[in-house]
Every structure is written in structure tokens, then in C-alpha cells.
Amino acid sequence: MAKKTVQDIDLKGKKVLVRVDFNVPLKDGVITDDTRIKAALPTIKYVLDQGGKAILFSHLGRVKTEEDKAGKSLAPVADRLGELLGKEVTFVPETRGEALETAINNLEDGGVVVFENTRFEDVDGKKESKNDADLGKYWASLGDVFVNDAFGTAHRAHASNVGIASTGIPTVAGFLMEKEIKFIGEAVEEPKRPMVAILGGAKVSDKIGVIENLIPKADKILIGGGMTYTFYRAKGIEIGKSLVEADKVDLAKELIEKAGDKLVLPVDSVTAAEFSNEVPTEVHEGAVPADQMGLDIGPKTVELFANILKDAKTVVWNGPMGVFEMSNFAKGTIGVCEAIANLTDATTIIGGGDSAAAAEQLGFADKFTHISTGGGASLELLEGKELPGLAAINDK
Ligand code: ADP
Ligand code: MG
């Protein structure tokens, strides 16, 4: 998956289109978390340092109707970017047209323009999200080269990534994109062994593709979270009131057969009578009693998983081990985080929105080699799928 990066092309004096991920949380027009803007800085600064003219654009939230546009302008993002860069950033409240073209033509080397939320184009026939060819062509016409640094949307073919690239404009990856491909790609395709995958979260149905892709690649696959109980049912173990996907039980059986002893299921669960942090908890080995639901892996499972993890050289983790949002059911996820934090010589990667949030919330974010910024995109990369946004970047 060797792709050209921003370091492989000449940027001096060029109009550089940069698809960034500025999809930040906003409340009443105020940015509540600017992590994504900061994460885009290395690529932006590089373009400016090289003497390029940066034309930045991104989606922000979902926009389907005219009313949806309220509170989804990139204007506050452009302001914050100006502060972070310590230089003037011109914001154009349009996604096309004369004002935008003039602003771009007036750019000096090292200058920055941010234009409006690409999804504002969705109000009129979903042009961005449906990869309208004319829109992609138009945006491509505004620049000389295209840098795609938005990994989070790489699993979608939109006008602002695939549309622009498919016009034939030189297309390269930014630093964020490069990092994601490198870490997730290498972990899955050429892992240092043993490679241990940890899969959890709510449902098997979300993770089937990942499990199937990783069975031949991983040395061990540890299962936790809500999907445990669909596997339990497949093995004829009682699950009480636990989450189960009845229509996925046969598939779970198949996965158990295919994976053999690579697949490791929890040996105990932390349970409660209700999906609540306010009721007493119990620990059960194997079967979950009829009036209980399994909401976290139990202490023996944490020990079992920690033991397997201690020799790992590559760890890929997707999906929390329990309902970590409630303190009563966070210990399994914390235990696995601790086991990973103890590894000194391993590449450890988290992909998945909630898993990344869990690691951050529980205070382990800095213990991982890489926390993926793209939930859906990292999942699809773990599934071994080709991401259209990535495929559209020129090969080295
Ligand atoms: P990710 O976003 O990392 O891919 P998922 O979205 O698949 O993860 O799953 C995360 C959710 O799974 C969390 O909100 C968590 O509360 C829930 N979950 C974990 N374990 C259980 C369980 N035993 N029962 C019900 N929900 C669970
Ligand atoms: Mg999720």
C-alpha cells in the first residue's frame, strides 16, 4: 500500500488543495474540542513551509436540508486555525463561485484559504456525498495538486476525496493519512508476531468482517463485550438477559470452527439485573443466570487475556470489553488497557470510535502506539477492504 505523500511532490508556488478532517464538535458555534484541527497542522504547516498556497476544505456534521446548515459552518474552525497557525486565514463562506475563486487567485505563497463545509453541497442533490462528477471536477480545477489528509472519510467515495482525485490531478496523502495507513496496514498485513487481535463492542454483526479478515492473520483473537453472548449461545452456554443477535448464532458457530483455538472467549462475566450502574453486580463463570445480563468481562478473563497479551508483539484492538461508560462495567476494558500499557516492545493499535474514546476516558491514550482517528475507516481497513479515498491516492 505504498502511496505517494505530500513529501513526494513539489509544492512551491502551487495551489494545493488539502482535504482535511475538520469535523469538530461544536456547541452554539463554539468548538468544544479542537483535537482534529491540531491533528491537521503538520500537513498544513508542511505545505506552507514549502511555499505552497493552501486551500483547505472539510465536511462538518451531516447536512441534508437548508436548516441543517445552521451551526455547521467552518467559520469558527477557520478562526481557530488562524490562532493555531499564528497567521491570517481567509474564510470563504461558499463551496464554489467567484468569491472562492478570487480568494484563491489572490493567495500568496504560504497563504491559507478555508472554504465552507463540503456537505453544504448535499442540500442540492447530495452532490458531495454522492460524488457528483461535476463537483469533483470543479474543485479539482481550483488547484494544481491534491493532498488528501482526511482518513476518517477514506471509506467513502465523496466528491471532496475520490471526485477530485479521479480527474487525474496529482493526488498524495497527508501526514495523518500516511500514519493511519502505515500503522493499521502494517499491523494487519505484516505484523510482528505474535499478533493478538482484541474484538469487543456491542454487536457481532458490526465486527464480522473484521473477525473473518483477522482469523488467518492473527495468532490469537480475544473476544469481549456484548458479542460474547452470541458466541456463548453458539456454544450452548446460557446467557440470561445478555445482549444476543439470534440471527448471528449460526455465523458465530462458523467463526468458532474456522478460528479453532485462535479464538478465545471470556471465561467469566460481570453481570447485573439491569443495564444500569445503580444496581448490584455479580460475577459468573460461564453461564449467566436467567435474571442477569453480562455487561463486562470478569476478573478471570482479564487475567487470561493479560497472560496472552504479555507475549504479543502486535496488538490490534477494536471494541470495548464491557459497558465502559458505567464504572461498574469498566474494569474489563481498564484491565486490558493495563495489560497493553505494560508491553514495552509491541506495536499497539486501537481502531474504532468507542474504543478510542474508552482509552482516552480511562487515561490510557498515551500508552498506545497508535489510536486511529477514523472509526468507520479503520474498521474497514481492519476488514481488509479497499478504501476508495485511499485507493484514489497515487501509488509511489
Ligand atoms: P467501536 O466504536 O470501538 O467500534 P462499538 O461501537 O462496536 O465499538 O461498541 C461500543 C459499545 O459497546 C459501547 O457503547 C459499550 O457500552 C457497548 N458494550 C460493550 N460491552 C457490552 C455488553 N456486554 N452489553 C452491551 N453493550 C456492550
Ligand atoms: Mg462505535
Largest sheet, strands/sense/barrel: 6 strands, parallel
| Alpha-carbon Rg, integer | 23 Å
- What are the bound molecules? adenosine-5'-diphosphate, magnesium ion
Which segments are poorly predicted (pLDDT under 50) over 5 or more consecutive residues?
A: none
Q: So, CATH architecture of the largest domain?
A: 3-Layer(aba) Sandwich
Number-wise, the strands total: 17
Query: Strand-residue fraction?
Result: 15-25%
* Helical segment count: 14
Q: How are the strands of the largest sheet arranged?
A: 5-6-4-1-7-8
Looking at the structure, the CATH topology of the largest domain is Rossmann fold
**Overall pLDDT, averaged?**
95
The end-to-end span amounts to: 9 Å
What percentage of residues falls in helices of 4 or more residues?
25-40%
Tell me the quaternary state.
single chain
Protein name: Phosphoglycerate kinase
Keywords: ATP-binding, Cytoplasm, Glycolysis, Kinase, Nucleotide-binding, Transferase
Catalytic activity: (2R)-3-phosphoglycerate + ATP = (2R)-3-phospho-glyceroyl phosphate + ADP
Pathway: Carbohydrate degradation; glycolysis; pyruvate from D-glyceraldehyde 3-phosphate: step 2/5
